[in-house]
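pinging the channel bc i need a second pair of eyes. not urgent but kinda urgent?? the chain im working w is below, pasted from the shared doc
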Amino acid sequence: MVETSIEFWRRMASQFGGPVLALCCGAGALAIPIAAMSLSVTGVDRDAAALARAAANDVDVRWVEADVRNLALPRRFGLVILADGAFHAFLAAGEQDALLAAVRRHLAPEGVFGFDIEQRAGQPLAEDVEHLLEIAGFEIAAQYGDWDFGRVRRTSERVITLCRLAAAA
């Protein structure tokens, strides 16, 4: 049984390997435990103060201050994670497109992009996100309705999505 989102993402990192890119990583609540697994981790956030708190920890993580929508790193990643419902921070016109384009630029050909969304009034529903992913060139590999790998239901408060780059048509 997975007890937290951190344990879920650690399992995904163990399954898919690195290097790992943690987007909107804040003070490193997820990046640090994944780095403790001896995986190469890069954490990106635009909040310099949060990154300074993260960097104060004695872990081997590359911290990058940047807006993830404009990210241009010189490498690709086996796992890209946008955790803790951060997808909801990108609601204005074009923001989700820019975010997904940045993920495409940084995802290794066989890599996995994972994120979670809350299903609540006024927020994108899983169906809306599926459509956005398809348009952006991703295909869904798996979806879960909770941190214990349960099925997505209409009543699921959270939807966790794992996707890959779509095969060229």
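so The beta strands are 20-23, 41-45, 61-65, 77-82, 107-118, 138-144, 158-165. and The mean pLDDT is 90. — does that match what u expected or am i reading it wrong
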